[in-house]
Write a structure and sequence with these properties.
By secondary structure, the chain is an alpha/beta fold. The relative contact order is 0.18. It has 8 helices and 8 strands. It is globular and about 55 Å long. Bound molecules: zinc ion. Zinc ion binds next to loops.
Length: 256
């Protein structure tokens, strides 16, 4: 598959909110970038409710700029689908808009939120992206953009803190060793200054960066390295079955 000259080296991280991609998969995106892939980051919302001091309009503008800055560090672009925090719904509008985005970018790899996570926004995102990947090739799902094939490889990131909402641990089946990428991951997450400052005020320490590092360290320990990110691959009917992350990143990927 990798030797196929027609393979589009394009990866899309499509999450609910600005900073989700940085927390969950920035290290892996950086490795893909180094392997010659183009990186795109998109979110369903501008993070319009992630504040206790700004108006909806202000925080949306601030957070979109922060997300774009983070994506730029990987020479990537950032798109916001302009839905609202807490109101990410599985419906015709979100599915069509997401299908349009995927058809425009034509990614070979899509990374999204865990199907089980602490927040419904993340779970809805996961379901919408699952459907939009599948429908990216459906001729009779009519949006402006032309359909394309094959269905992208779909990976789910870890949920927040690696557990579902009942506290049950979610074990990754694919670990990516991001020890060398922890610096860029930290830098990308640091672009989300509004969130970092908010948590700093609340915790009296740099909890935003520290909690990201703690979790990457926990995953790292599970594969005997310093830092790692965890994923599960969508292997349902109709989706590619080979593990393309392993094929691209080789020794840096541990499959469990
Ligand atoms: Zn989120």
């Amino acid at each position: 598959m990798i030797t196929d000259g027609t393979l589009r080296k394009s990866a899309l991280a499509l999450f609910a909110h600005p900073d989700d991609a940085e927390i969950m998969c920035a290290g892996t995106l950086s490795l893909l970038r180094k392997a010659g892939w183009s990186v795109h980051i998109a979110t369903f919302t501008p993070g319009d409710k992630g504040t206790s001091e700004y108006t909806t309009k202000e925080i949306s503008r601030i957070r979109k700029a922060e997300a774009a800055k983070a994506a730029e560090l990987l020479d990537g672009d950032y798109v916001c689908l302009e839905f609202e925090d807490v109101y990410i719904l599985y419906n015709r509008e979100t599915i069509n808009k997401t299908t349009s985005l995927i058809r425009r970018i034509r990614p070979t790899i899509v990374i999204t939120a865990s199907p089980a996570d602490y927040m419904i926004d993340h779970e809805m995102t996961s379901m919408i992206v699952q459907t939009a990947c599948f429908s990216s090739g459906m001729k009779n799902l009519e949006v402006m953009e032309e359909p394309f094939e094959p269905v992208p490889y779909l990976y789910y990131s870890d949920p927040m803190e690696g557990k579902d909402k009942l506290g049950k641990p979610i074990k990754p089946s694919v670990y990516v060793n991001i020890t060398e990428e922890i610096g860029i991951k930290e830098e990308m997450l640091g672009c989300h200054k509004s969130q970092r400052d908010w948590l700093k005020l609340h915790h009296k320490m740099d909890e935003y960066i520290l909690s990201m590092k703690r979790f990457a360290e926990k995953r790292g320990k599970e594969i005997n390295t310093k830092y790692a990110e965890g994923f599960r691959q969508h292997l349902g009917h109709g989706y590619p079955q080979n593990n393309i992350l392993k094929e691209i990143l080789d020794d840096l990927v541990v499959v469990r």
